[in-house]
């Protein structure tokens, strides 16, 4: 236990003392390792410890939050006093705390701390070697590895008192290829809520090789076209399209302020009937999974859009309370220094009935977005963009040549309605989602699918 | 704080360590968010930590901790030494020799702390009110926030460097939502300073509201190639992207689009760019960088000609030159890297209106999105989401959204025809001082 039960009780009692109607303590101890290899040699090796806690007091809709980088009683009581003053006159009462259960759903077979640094270095060396073996055009490979092991504890005035240990490992490769003055890049990564066993399941050299092949392919690319066309989204990280196009608009903080195009639309048709969108933070081992969210609520499978009909939003405790519903287990925070907000976990589109060859064969002319480099959305308007780092032309039902420098731009609600084919080759991918200055691990996924009339922003008119 | 740093140096010595460095920071920040005049959220963070670098056997190792107890510091120092054992030895690795001359900068303002919280809440309220009062179509303000921080940084190393400085900064930010016939548009703005009295809340609210309202009724335009006028926000986005390619490190590692172009024309003749680490208004200004090297003004592009690159101690030694004071340490937990301090475009002649008036048919871009995913500082590919207005006969006409602007970065820089006189500080994606610019030709993708 990061904090002793009696002490937590005193902190919560003090936070409620001035009249808040809800109080919470969140404590965290996080150990991280980071390695980076570039120019063929291990350049940077770092490790560190972050520990601290925050106290949050809520009165009606007003939140007061104070963090301290200590787990000692005195600074925590001071944080509770300050937070309590910021949220006065509510009259909340503390319920008896639970037993302080350790919620364990992830069994870590090979904890990163049990593995020698030299063995971790081998993962990077393998990825680097595989990248450079792809071709003489590969002039640079930057391989990054990191692991984090954190213990989080959440306790609140409703009696919640739970702990979870979380372990994540990730390996990323960025590769540069050059030919005749044209420089192109390739990127790939693997990561999971797992220990080092991930690298028994997934070959680290494949990460370097995949990134290098992407860079090499892009050396043969032509500048991307401009204008509206049919877009086939490759499985996996293509799911980031839905993360941006509608995921953020289904987070309850935007919804409750009416600052989402999806506000007040539950039960309405918002997408093609081929689209079923799910957020599920409970899938064991997935990058965006935890057993509990950062407010102590068990994560779960939440169907957001079912066959085109809007079914629900993603809630944290505060927004759920405001709306008179239960939290969906989507209250997440970057660290003890950040307040929880509604966030996606692993968000994905379910398989459809088409086959992948059918999707291409029925596309007379269009754009094939195979790898994406991330995106951005304005939830209020639904307008989103995302960069395509590996794209191809589709002509007469066949993938012909690679294209570079394209961004896809569209409007979430419009794009959801324009999904006209969904294949059956579902895959997940990993990323870090940023919102309100907080980054959290998020997974996204989808099968290969087709969107009609999406704007491709290239350089060729 | 220097005591803590010196303690770390003691723990890091005694074993096979040639050099050691301790970077200690302590900060206290507050942010206030107002919604419909009520305080929606009041956040207060305080934290401190130490980042350690040791050179052992010719290799560098790093560690950090937020646990400043003696045991915590000793453990982190030992970890840094262990970490050095796995990195490759490198003849250029090493700490900078201590400098003695530093720019006198006034980065700390007492008024930040003296101003009562109530006044800061009022400031956030005034931002919200100004946005709502601007136009009846401003339906609500999704965010009106005030945020401040005070920080102290101390660095000590075994070569005898031991100095610290403190700074304050604050900003107000808002996002306004305009509504008309069921259509929503948003606009953002901010104002920055070293203490709340320097913030113009009213102007902030009005600008966000004006942006949102001006985009009402916007739609896609046809795809075309045309002159593009960039608002300072947009110029800053572009400058932020090239900043990472203007470092000696990215050239050495063969991932800079500027490699081999020194003394060559890389931008329009009216375009000059300086990294200014000592500008009094720059929020990234400091007397020394994350390695204790004095910051300075480093010319990067002058009249369109590439002058040189930014260096930290390591990349400088590799190229046989001195650090330019660009060893960036974002926080005690971050590994130092090379990066810009304040990037400052030299203001040109002509106002924004003059520049727009000079364009017969073109696109005025007031907002861009997806810069981090759509701009590649290695390949130079650039394609980002854009919103703004068409320019017809020198005047802003139809509002436009859901389009992209694209080109390759070097061609875009070379196509900069006019640089405006309206430079302002933009704190997104770095600390950048940027004006309105006219790029002669870009591809706009829409219908």
Supply the key terms:
heterodimer, A: 461 residues, alpha+beta, PmbA/TldD fold, seven-stranded mixed beta sheet, six-stranded mixed beta sheet, 23 strands, 21% helix, globular, B: 447 residues, 2 domains, six-stranded antiparallel beta sheet
Question: What is this entry, summarized?
Answer:
The complex is a heterodimer of chains A (461) and B (447). By secondary structure, chain A is α+β, with helices and mostly antiparallel strands.
Task: Characterize the structure shown.
The complex is a heterodimer of chains A (461) and B (447). With 461 residues, chain A is of the alpha+beta class. Chain A has two domains: 5-219, PmbA/TldD superfamily (PmbA/TldD fold), CATH 3.30.2290.10; 222-457, no CATH class. Chain A is built from ten helices and 23 strands. Chain A has helices at residues 5-17, 73-86, 117-132, 198-201, 204-219, 240-247, 252-256, 317-323, 356-361, 412-417; strands at 22-38, 41-59, 62-68, 101-102, 138-156, 161-179, 182-192, 222-223, 226-233, 277-280, 301-306, 309-310, 331-332, 341-342, 346-349, 365-378, 383-395, 398-404, 406-411, 419-422, 427-435, 438-446, 449-457. In chain A, helix 1 runs parallel beside helix 2 and helix 3 packs parallel to helix 5 (204-219). The radius of gyration of chain A is 23 Å and the shape is globular. Chain A starts with a helix and ends with a strand. By secondary structure, chain B is an alpha+beta fold. Chain B has two domains: 2-214, PmbA/TldD fold, CATH 3.30.2290; 224-445, no CATH class. Chain B has eleven helices and 20 strands. Chain B has helices spanning 2-12, 70-84, 111-114, 117-134, 201-214, 232-243, 248-252, 313-318, 352-357, 371-374, 409-414, and strands at 19-35, 38-56, 59-65, 138-157, 162-180, 183-193, 224-230, 273-276, 297-302, 305-306, 327-328, 337-338, 342-345, 361-369, 381-392, 395-408, 416-419, 424-426, 431-434, 437-445. In chain B, the strands form four sheets. Chain B has a six-stranded antiparallel β-sheet. A six-stranded mixed β-sheet of chain B has the order 10-9-8-13-19-18, with helices on one face. In chain B, a hairpin with a 2-residue loop joins strand 1 (19-35) and strand 2 (38-56). In chain B, helix 1 packs across helix 2. The mean pLDDT of chain B is 94.
């Amino acid at each position: 236990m990061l904090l002793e039960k009696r002490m937590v009780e005193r902190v919560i009692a003090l936070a409620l003392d001035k009249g808040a109607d809800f109080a919470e303590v969140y404590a965290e101890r996080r150990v991280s390792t980071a390695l980076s290899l570039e120019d063929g040699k291990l350049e940077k090796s770092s490790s560190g410890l972050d520990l601290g806690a925050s106290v949050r007091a809520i009165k009606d809709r007003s939140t007061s939050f104070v963090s301290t980088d200590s787990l000692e009683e005195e600074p925590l009581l001071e944080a509770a006093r300050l937070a309590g003053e910021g949220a006065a006159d509510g009259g909340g009462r503390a319920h008896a705390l639970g037993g302080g259960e350790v919620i364990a759903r992830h069994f870590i077979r090979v904890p990163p701390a049990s593995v020698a640094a030299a063995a971790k270095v081998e993962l990077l060396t393998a990825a680097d070697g595989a990248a450079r073996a792809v071709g003489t055009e590969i002039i640079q490979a930057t391989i990054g590895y990191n692991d984090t092991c954190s213990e989080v504890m959440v306790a609140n005035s409703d009696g919640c008192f739970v702990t979870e240990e979380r372990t994540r490992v990730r390996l990323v490769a960025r590769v540069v290829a050059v030919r005749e003055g044209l420089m192109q890049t390739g990127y790939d990564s693997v990561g999971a809520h797992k220990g080092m066993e991930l690298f028994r399941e997934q070959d680290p050299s494949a990460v370097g090789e995949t990134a290098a092949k992407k860079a090499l392919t892009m050396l043969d690319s032509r500048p991307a076209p401009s204008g509206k066309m049919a877009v086939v989204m490759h499985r996996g990280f293509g799911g980031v399209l839905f993360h941006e196009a509608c995921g953020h608009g289904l987070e309850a903080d935007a919804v409750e302020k009416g600052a989402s195009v999806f506000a007040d639309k539950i039960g309405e048709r918002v997408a093609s009937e081929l689209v079923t969108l799910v957020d599920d933070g409970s899938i064991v081992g997935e990058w965006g999974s935890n057993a509990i969210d950062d407010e102590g609520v068990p994560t779960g499978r939440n169907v957001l859009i079912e066959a085109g009909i809007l079914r629900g939003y993603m809630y944290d405790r505060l927004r759920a309370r405001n709306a008179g519903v239960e939290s969906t287990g989507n209250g997440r925070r970057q660290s003890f220094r950040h307040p929880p907000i509604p966030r996606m976990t692993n968000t994905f589109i379910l398989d459809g009935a088409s086959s992948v060859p059918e999707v291409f064969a029925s596309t007379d002319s269009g754009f094939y977005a195979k790898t994406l480099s991330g995106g951005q959305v304005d939830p209020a308007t639904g307008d989103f963009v995302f960069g395509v780092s590996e794209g191809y032309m589709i002509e007469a039902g066949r993938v012909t040549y690679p294209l570079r420098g394209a961004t896809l731009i569209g409007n979430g609600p419009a794009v959801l309605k324009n999904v006209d084919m969904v294949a059956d080759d579902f895959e997940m991918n990993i990323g870090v989602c940023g919102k309100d200055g907080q980054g959290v691990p998020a997974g996204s996924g989808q099968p290969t699918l087709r969107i009609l009339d999406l704007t491709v922003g290239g350089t060729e008119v | 704080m220097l005591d803590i740093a010196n303690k770390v140096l003691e723990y890091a010595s005694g074993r096979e360590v040639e050099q050691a460095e301790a970077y200690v920071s302590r900060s206290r920040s507050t942010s206030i968010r107002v919604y419909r005049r009520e305080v929606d959220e009041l956040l207060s963070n305080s934290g401190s930590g130490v980042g350690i670098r040791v050179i052992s056997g010719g290799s560098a190792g790093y560690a950090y901790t937020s646990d400043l107890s003696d045991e915590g510091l000793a453990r982190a120092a030992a970890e840094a030494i262990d970490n050095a054992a796995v990195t490759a030895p490198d003849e250029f690795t090493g700490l900078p020799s201590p400098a003695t001359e530093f720019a006198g900068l006034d980065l700390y303002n007492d008024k930040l702390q003296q101003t009562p919280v109530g006044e800061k809440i009022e400031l956030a309220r005034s931002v919200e009110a100004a946005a709502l009062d601007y136009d009846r179509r401003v339906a609500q303000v999704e965010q009106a926030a005030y945020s401040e921080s005070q920080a102290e940084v101390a660095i000590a190393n075994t070569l005898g460097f031991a100095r610290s400085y403190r700074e304050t900064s604050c900003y107000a930010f808002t996002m306004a939502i305009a509504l008309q016939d069921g259509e929503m548009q948003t606009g953002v703005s901010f104002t920055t300073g070293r203490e709340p009295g320097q913030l113009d809340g009213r102007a902030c609210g009005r600008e966000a509201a004006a942006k949102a309202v001006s985009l009402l009724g916007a739609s896609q335009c046809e795809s075309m190639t045309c002159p593009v006028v960039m608002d300072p926000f947009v110029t800053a986005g572009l400058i932020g992207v090239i900043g990472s390619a203007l470092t000696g490190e990215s050239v050495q590692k063969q991932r800079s689009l500027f490699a081999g172009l020194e003394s060559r024309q890389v931008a329009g003749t009216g375009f000059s760019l300086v990294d200014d680490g000592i500008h009094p208004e720059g929020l990234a200004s400091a007397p020394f960088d994350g390695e204790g090297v004095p910051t300075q003004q480093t010319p990067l592009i002058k009249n369109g000609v590439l002058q040189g690159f930014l260096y930290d101690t390591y990349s400088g030694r590799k190229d046989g030159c001195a650090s330019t004071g660009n060893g960036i340490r974002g926080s005690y937990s971050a590994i130092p890297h090379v990066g810009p301090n304040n990037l400052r475009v030299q203001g040109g002649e002509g106002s924004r209106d003059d520049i727009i008036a000079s364009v017969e048919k073109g696109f005025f871009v007031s907002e861009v999105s997806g810069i981090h995913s759509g701009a590649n500082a290695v390949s130079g590919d650039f394609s980002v989401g854009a919103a703004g207005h068409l320019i017809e006969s020198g005047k802003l006409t139809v509002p436009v959204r859901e389009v992209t602007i694209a080109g390759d970065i070097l061609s875009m820089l070379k196509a900069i025809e006019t640089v405006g006189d309206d430079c302002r500080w933009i704190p997104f994606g770095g600390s950048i001082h940027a004006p309105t610019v006219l790029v002669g030709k870009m591809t706009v993708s829409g219908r």
